[in-house]
Specification:
Blueprint lengths: L5 E6 L8 H12 L2 E9 H7 L5 H25 L4 E8 L2 H12 L3 E5 L5 H6 L3 H8 L4 E4 L9 E5 L9 H19 L2 E8 L14 H22 L7 E5 L2 H11 L4 E4 L8 H4 L2 H5 L6 E4 L1
Parallel strand pairs: 1-2, 1-4, 2-3, 4-5, 6-7, 6-9, 7-8, 9-10
Antiparallel strand pairs: 5-10
Helix pairs in contact: 4-6
Length: about 290
């Protein structure tokens, strides 16, 4: 049985050339899942576009236009054997309205196109996608890039340590989600760990140089990574232990290996992390592919 039974796709109906519908539809068909498409329109943006006068009638016409367009898309999907339902609604508070939809529907996956925000805007406002990564209780599939609608190469990006840690449980969820997606889409599953060994994390120890410590730590981390890969039966040529900053390493790997989806963990941000963003949050603006956050 597929790990996906109910998929929720959130779209901006004004972006009618978005690839998100095609990605969600392909995944729904492959997994025999029910797909609900919710087109949410921020009310404040709409009001700013309308001239003074009969705004009520203009709002109704605007809503009906998007409803007719979305229903036409849905009919095409139903003709392909996909069970799809739709809705078009105003959104007074878009982030909260999306989370309310998730709470009401309890989908297995929330799907949405990546919304690229400028560095300046991110400095003052929390991007919508970051908000969903931090607060959505279900996995979030953020569609990016312009590749195949069904992934051919899925990468599970894990975080390992040389001892038992809370990351172990998250690693299991990441790999299980990535493996399920790969099986459903007949895609390759790769496992990757970007190892960032920084002197900031290494304390001086009597009789050991910094180079000795770095070499020893790398060896321990690589053993932990290989042990994790072996537990899940990941083929040796699909195990990637890379040295470097995670965002940079993942971005370069995604470009070089034509990755379609990176599956990563999402964690609750606190303190300065809320302003700076996590690795997963910054990856959204760096990689040429989709990101599935668990």
């Amino acid at each position: 049985m597929s790990q996906y039974q109910r998929l929720l796709l959130i779209i901006n109906p004004a972006l009618r050339h978005s690839q998100a519908i095609h990605h969600a539809a392909a995944l729904a068909k492959a997994s025999h899942a029910n797909l609900h498409i919710a087109a949410l329109i921020p009310l404040w943006k709409m009001l700013s576009l309308l001239e003074e006068g009969d705004r009520k009638m203009a709002r109704e016409r605007y809503l009906q236009d998007h409803h007719d367009w979305l229903e036409e898309q849905a009919r095409n999907l139903r003709d392909r054997g996909i069970n799809v339902t739709t809705e078009v609604a105003w959104a007074d508070d878009l982030p909260q309205d999306i989370l309310d939809h998730v709470s009401d529907m309890q989908p297995d996956l929330l799907i949405k196109e990546v919304l690229h925000e400028s560095v300046l805007k991110r400095a003052f406002f929390t991007p919508l996608d970051w908000h969903l990564l931090r607060h959505c209780p279900v996995p979030v599939y953020l569609v990016g890039g312009s590749g195949f609608v069904l992934p051919r190469r899925v990468v599970a990006a894990v975080e390992v340590s040389d001892t038992e840690s809370p990351d172990d449980e998250l690693n299991d969820r990441i790999i299980q989600q990535a493996s399920g997606l790969a099986i459903q889409c007949d895609a390759e599953l790769h496992l990757l760990y970007a190892c960032d060994i920084s002197a900031a994390f290494l304390a001086d120890m009597e009789g050991l140089t910094l180079a000795d410590l770095t070499k020893a730590l790398r060896s321990d981390l690589e053993k932990s990574f290989l042990k994790l890969a072996g537990r899940y039966g990941v083929a040796s040529d699909r195990r990637h232990f890379i040295l470097g900053n995670p965002v940079k390493a993942l971005s370069e790997f995604a470009y070089d290996h034509q990755v379609d989806v990176i599956v990563m963990g999402k964690v609750q941000s606190h303190g300065m992390d809320k302003l700076l963003g996590s690795t997963t949050e910054h990856i959204l603006y760096q990689v040429p592919c989709s990101v599935l956050a668990v």
